[in-house]
Specification:
The protein has 216 residues and is mainly alpha-helical. Helices cover 51% and strands 9% of the residues.
């Protein structure tokens, strides 16, 4: 029986690489105002941002694992459970294809296999999207996970909780995006998406609590 739905309508195409953390937006505020969540979100972004900077591939793979682990560690925080009716707010609870794949990547790393990375060069324009005429051409070395196979995920206990066709489509999308923009950007985007989802969950809980107080 399928327990974890993946909402494929939430897929998106990345338009550029985040050179700077973009967590100042109000849609992340409720989550990032909580110290324990803020610390782990920023750690995850910091680890993912260093992947393309480090030269040692073993350490790069360690940074991928560390970035994912910090993000997943938020799920079980007591403060998160407090705002979610006493339950963890898991990445796959969001039904977002990016977060579902990242969640199972973490399980894959823990139980079955380790990531392997390949490098590629990408020509980019560095500047403001609204002023492309002022952009500066740059070339960056990026990395992607080169051993993503559905067959590896099939051995995970959690795999059978997904609709197979949904999971395969989500993984295909994830793989294409990381090969275009690098695994660093995918993990950074995962931090943004999870922070926004957490904020929505917290705000809904606060609104519900206030409503109950008014009624009583």
């Amino acid at each position: 029986m399928v327990k974890n739905n993946i909402d494929l309508s939430k897929k998106f195409n990345i338009q550029g690489i985040s050179l700077f953390r973009q967590l100042g937006d109000s849609k992340y505020k409720s989550a990032l105002s909580i110290e324990e969540i803020n610390e782990r979100i920023l750690n995850s972004c910091m680890f993912s941002g260093k992947i393309s900077v480090e030269q040692d591939q073993g350490f790069q793979c360690g940074l991928v694992r560390a970035s994912i682990a910090e993000l997943v560690s938020i799920e079980e925080l007591p403060v998160v459970k407090l705002h979610n009716a006493g339950k963890p707010f898991r990445l796959n609870t969001t039904e977002h294809p990016l977060l579902c794949i990242v969640k199972e990547l973490r399980n894959l790393q823990m139980h079955l296999s380790s990531v392997q990375l390949s490098e590629f060069s990408k020509d980019l324009l560095c500047g403001r999207p609204d002023k492309p005429e002022n952009a500066i051409p740059v070339t960056r070395e990026l990395f992607f996970i080169n051993n993503l196979k559905v067959s590896d995920f099939e051995s995970l206990r959690n795999y059978n909780n997904y609709d197979v066709s949904q999971f395969k489509e989500a993984l295909t999308w994830f793989d294409a995006e990381q090969k275009e923009w690098g695994i660093s950007e995918l993990l950074e985007q995962a931090s943004y998406v999870y922070a926004e989802s957490l904020s929505n969950m917290i705000e809904n809980h606060v609104a519900l609590t206030l409503d109950r107080k008014v009624i009583s």
